[in-house]
Amino acid sequence: MTYSQSNPAENQTVSKEFILVGFSYLKKMQILLFLLLLVLYLLILMGNLLIILLVKLNPSLHTPMYFLLVNLSFLEISYTTSVVPQLMAHLLVEEKTISLAGCAAQLFLITTMGLTECCILAAMAYDRYVAICHPLHYTTIMSGQVCALLAGTSWLIGVSMEVAQTTWIFSLPFCGSHLIHHFLCDIPPVLKMACADTSKNEIMVLTVSALFVICPFLLIILSYILILSTILRLPSAEGRGKAFSTCSSHLMVVTFFYGTALFTYLVPKSTSTKDRDLWISLMNTILIPLSNPLIYTLRNKEVKGALRKIVEKHIGS
Predict the structure, then answer these.
(1) Is-contact 106 86, C-beta < 8 A?
(2) Residue 4 falls within a domain, yes or no?
(3) Is residue 10 part of a domain?
(4) What domain range includes position 31?
(5) Mean pLDDT of each 10-residue bin along the chain, 317 residues long
């Protein structure tokens, strides 16, 4: 099915639903994309659920780092589930519609998970900073209450900011073309649907991004500068290697998360096309939630050890 822009008469009609054009141009190839997404989605669910179960079932993993990692895995499951099932359904049907309320719910979920993940990654960086730079005081500084406070604050920031932002965005009138040239309801394509001045909303988006996306990133960089400084002062190469290995998994996750975000938003608009933007967004939606459990299960000795114990226990029984 080919979608086209609405005619002038339609521009006076207030939109009650949108059409997510997405990958309609692929036509019959949409079935293959559906099958690929189904496999990847199941892998994301299994990988992140495995992390959650491993931490729950192994007392040796009941530490601040793995408590925050459970939050991260839950975030990845929630983010992917808010996007991928609907995308897969739209790949199988002609009319790829989403109600105004459904669009608002999806936008709220994906932006909340995104902001919260930035804060959780910053909390994990702080945990690594305390573990390496203040090892003797680690259990005192990173107490259970502090961990709960860090995670709770991260969720509170994400939810409260996006309740306000989503409410403000969807208080705008939506009329004219109801075609969103995307596979999900993200802020930029939704704002394009509004038939009102959106300059204040755009300023709010930039402000929220500066405060709760860039600031956590700067805190992560500061933490790793202090970590690197401490590691370089260690007397033995073995000690330096051991210290660095305790934060290598988190560093890889942070690099991948912010690296893909920078790649997405720094692509020159002159060379950007709608189709390419769709594929970049899809890769971000899939690869980040898939990479986190892979990184933590393949590179983390403690997680691999916990997995080995469970496998050996069940095989032995």
Answers:
(1) yes
(2) no
(3) no
(4) 16-316
(5) 46 71 91 96 95 91 94 96 96 92 95 95 96 94 96 96 94 83 91 88 87 92 95 87 86 89 63 74 90 82 79 68
